[in-house]
């Protein structure tokens, strides 16, 4: 199963936006995230619809935060990303009539649902402000992505 990095990429971009001195272009963020600017715009569209970021057009334009990091939880970003799968699918449907497969699938499915619920509850308690303060506390210097001269 291919991993889904939307949540990680969005968190990365949002934290860089907080420390950028000016709006970040889709091109600059694409370079930072090692992806395509179209992917960046698609990723950020859910956050824009939720009111967490906005884009400014024209010279000097780009993406900026429109909410304080303390007002955005990991759960908010997860939901804005389209609620990507948190875990891989652990069940099989090789022989749905097999009693062993039924028992295994029922247990695995219930356990994954419980784990997802616990993870989402934790996501709701952690803000991007918490992450930003953790970064600052550890003394790691965040370098904003390069901006092209315009």
Automatic annotation (TrEMBL):
Alphabetized GO MF terms: DNA-binding transcription factor activity
Protein name: Rrf2 family transcriptional regulator
Matches recorded under InterPro entries: Tscrpt_reg_Rrf2, WH-like_DNA-bd_sf, WH_DNA-bd_sf
PANTHER family on file: HTH-TYPE TRANSCRIPTIONAL REGULATOR YWGB-RELATED (PTHR33221:SF15), WINGED HELIX-TURN-HELIX TRANSCRIPTIONAL REGULATOR, RRF2 FAMILY (PTHR33221)
Entry GO terms, CC: cytosol
Signal peptide (from-to): none
Domain of life the protein comes from: Bacteria
């Amino acid at each position: 199963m291919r991993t889904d990095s939307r949540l990680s990429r969005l968190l990365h971009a949002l934290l860089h936006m907080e420390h950028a001195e000016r709006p970040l272009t889709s091109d600059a963020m694409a370079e930072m995230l090692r992806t395509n600017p179209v992917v960046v715009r698609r990723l950020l569209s859910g956050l824009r619809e939720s009111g967490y970021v906005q884009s400014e057009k024209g010279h000097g334009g780009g993406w900026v935060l429109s909410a304080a990091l303390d007002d955005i939880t990991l759960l908010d970003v997860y939901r804005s990303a389209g609620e990507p799968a948190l875990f891989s699918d652990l069940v099989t449907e090789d022989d749905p009539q097999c009693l062993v497969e039924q028992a295994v699938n029922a247990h695995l499915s219930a356990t994954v649902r419980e784990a997802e619920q616990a993870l989402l509850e934790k996501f709701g308690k952690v803000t991007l402000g918490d992450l930003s303060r953790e970064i600052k506390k550890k003394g790691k210097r965040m370098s904003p992505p390069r901006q092209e001269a315009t």
